[in-house]
Fold this protein.
Amino acid sequence: MSNYFVAPLSYDAIEYASCFASEQCQEGIVGILGNSLRIFSVDRLGEKFNQVAMPLQYTVRAMSYDLELKRIVTVETDHLTYPSKLRSEIKTQIFDATQDEDYKDAQESQVGYPKAPDGSWASCIRVIDPSGPS
């Protein structure tokens, strides 16, 4: 046995993981992937080694991991913001009034969101499958 080799850590998601330490691996992670046991030794533990960016609709205010469903649940909300359906209607009204083709095709992230009156909130609950695109 005693085979030790270095491989990239970016591959299929492991099903379960836990901390691991031995003489050969001072700080590591042991994980289960199907019928195999994987032991990871991360040299630069403070650095990111796998990352996926996901655009969010609002600011995340709370996050939890559902152990039974194996899903991440986020609660997103912003003050002084219209809900997305109402923002789409406002964008259509602005286009109808201006006939500006550039505005019609622009993303909200480029032109900004219309500011809602004080006391207005928009929110959503997002359920994310961390093992793949959602």
